[in-house]
Design a protein that fits this description.
Elements: E1 4-8, E2 17-23, E3 27-33, E4 46-52, E5 60-65, E6 83-86, E7 92-93, E8 98-101, E9 107-114, E10 119-123, H1 130-139, E11 145-151, E12 157-162, E13 173-179, H2 186-202, E14 208-212, H3 217-222, H4 245-259, E15 262-270, E16 280-283, H5 294-306, E17 312-318, H6 333-341, E18 345-349, E19 354-355, E20 358-359, H7 362-380
Parallel strand pairs: 3-5, 13-14, 13-15, 15-18, 16-17
Antiparallel strand pairs: 1-4, 2-3, 4-10, 5-9, 6-7, 6-10, 8-9, 11-12, 12-14, 16-18, 19-20
Helix pairs in contact: 2-7, 5-7
Amino acid sequence: MQTNVIFDNKIPYGNGILVGVENKKKWLEVAVTPEALNAPESLWFCFRLKFKNRPETQNRLRLVVKYFYNSLGGLPAEKINPVTRIAKGDWQRLSAGKTVPLPDGRADAVWETDIIADSMDFAFCFPYGSQEVDGLVKKSKGYFKKDIIGVSPEGRDIVRLSNNYGDENAKLPGIYLVARQHSGETSGSWALHGFLARLAERKAQAMTVWCLPLTNIDGIEKGYYGKDNFPIDINRAWGALPMRYENLVFQRDIERWAGRSRPLLALDFHSPCGCEADGVYCFIPKNGKGTADKISSEWSEHFEKSISADFASGEFGKVANYPSRWEEPCLSYYKFMNKFYKIPALSFEFPYSRSMENILEKRNYLEIGGSMADAVLDRLKTVVKNTMVNYE
C-alpha cells in the first residue's frame, strides 16, 4: 500500500501547488512549486502535507521545489533554509538545500528531512501575521495601542500601533515605521517585532512611535508573495498623489503623526532576494546631487554599529541602483519620507535564511531588531532639538 499525500495550501498564508508525489520504500518525494499569484515573480510558499497510510519504515521526505529558477533569488538552494513544524509546534529551520541540475540546464531545489508526524507544515521563512501583532500588543502591557486607520480594498483592517498619540503641541520627536509592503517578507516583520518589543521592555516615553506592521494585509492573508504587486507595488505607490488606496490611508496617517510630533526618523523593514546571505543592510535615499543623503547615512552608521558583526553586512549602507519596474515619481516609502518630510529615512533588508554562514533563527531577528531600538534610544540623547532637517 502506498502513502497517500494530501497537499493543503489553504492554511494561513498558504501558497504553493503540488506537482507530483513519488513513493519509495524508505522515503517520499513530494514536488511543489510556489505561486506567483498577483506578482511578476514568485518566492514565498507555505503549505501543509498530510501523510495517510504511511508505513513506519517510510520516514524520510525529499521536498523538491520545481521551477525555483523563476523566483526572486530562489537559487542556489544551498543558501536557503526553509522552516517546518508539526501541528501547533514551533517552526524549525531545515538544513541547507541542494541545487540539482537537470539535463536541459534547469535545476530543482531539494531539501531532505525526517517525517516526524503525519501532518507537517512547510514555509519559506517564519510566518508572521495578525496573531503575532496582537501578541506583541498584549505583551506590551499597555505600552502599545492598536488602532484601525482604514479598511483594505478587500475589506481587511489596516492596523496602526502607537506608544502614544502625541499632541497638537508636537513636543516629542516622532518615528514612523512600516513593514510588509511586500507581503512575504516575514524576516523584516520579525526584526520589527524585536524593535517594538525592546521599546516596550524599556518603556521608552521620550518619543512618539507610530507603526504600520502589516501594510499589504490583503496579500499577507492570501499568501501572495507581493513583490511588485499588480497593478502597482505598494512600495512604489508613494507619490504626492498615491497610486494605491492603501497608500492614501498610510499617507493621511503620516500627516496626523507629523502634526502631533516632531518628525525625526522613518524606517522600513524588508527582506531581500531569497538566497541573499550577505547580512543585514539598508538603502539610503539620494540627495539633490545623486549621492547618499548625509543625515540618513549618519543614522545608517549608527545602526550598523548596533548590530552584531555576525549579522551586519560588510557593505551596510547603500544607495539603490538596481533596476525597477516602476519609474519615478512612483516613490518608495523611505524616499517619500525623505522628500516630503525632510527627515532621515532608511529601508532595511533582513535575509530570509542566513547571514554569511550564520543561520538566522527567530531569536536572531528579535535580537537584531532589539539592538536597533537600543541604537535609536541611544542616539535620541544626542539629537538636536530641531529634528526638521533642510536637505540640499
